[in-house]
Amino acid sequence: xxxxxxxxxxxxxxxxxxxxxxxxVTFLSSSKISEEKQFLENYxxxxxxxxxxxxxxxxxxxxxESNQYDDLxxxxxxxxxxxxxxxxxxxxxxxxxxxxYQDALDLYIKSLRSERASYTAFRDFVETGDPKLNExxxxxxxxxxxxxxxxxxxxxxxx
Length: 159
Fold this sequence. Notes:
This protein is mainly α. It is 87% helix and 0% strand. Helix 3 runs antiparallel to helix 4.
């Protein structure tokens, strides 16, 4: 083989390698974008599901406050809501976020757990009438809101 032909083959080989590396880097970048997009879709879907459970539960509390429900009915409803929160925490715990969103997910799970604890304390308040449990419920719900807002601030991606 002539030197000219060998140089041509070497140059072509280098070009093929550079193009291959470029394609691979583009694929990795695209894969990360896709992973991030999937996480955000899952995250916002979870937020929507949580909002729905919370809004429905607060409507039920309103019915109890207006004496449409007795204590026992609200306790049964609360037990159902607590089960729904267990499922929401389990769902969130199964997410595999990109590293940059891990803290946001951890805060959202902390929010879910605090909200669940709030509703447990509220359930116990309804059952016992102990005003300290109602105060505890309010504090836990306030914490849940704080953690949720911190999570949203870390996401910083418009929907």
